[in-house]
Amino acid sequence: MLKSGDIEKVSVDADQADSLLHLLDAVVIKLEGGTEEDLQILNVKPFKSINKDILKEKEDHKRKSIEKKSENRYFMIF
């Protein structure tokens, strides 16, 4: 990894999170006895990437739905 310059390409910065995670994943694979062929899995794009904004939006929608159901129960009782 030192010879290929992978470590010098990455800086510890919030903007470089993806590159840093990629490097750390590669280090773990190598430490566990992985080969260059094993490292190729890191270059495969995930089938479906879930964005934090999408997760937050789903959580907000779920919370609003629960709140609405709670309000409806309150009005049905009275």
In short:
The protein is an all-alpha fold. The protein has helices at 17-31, 36-39, 52-77.
Using brief descriptors, characterize the structure shown.
single chain; 78 residues; mainly alpha; 58% helix; 0% strand
Task: Describe this structure as you would to a colleague.
This protein has 3 helices and no strands. The mean pLDDT is 78. By secondary structure, it is an all-alpha fold. The chain has one domain (14-77).
- First and last CA, distance: 69 Å
Tell me how many strands there are. 0
Shape: elongated
Unreliable stretches covering 5 or more consecutive residues = none
Question: Topology of this structure?
Answer:
Elements: H1 17-31, H2 36-39, H3 52-77
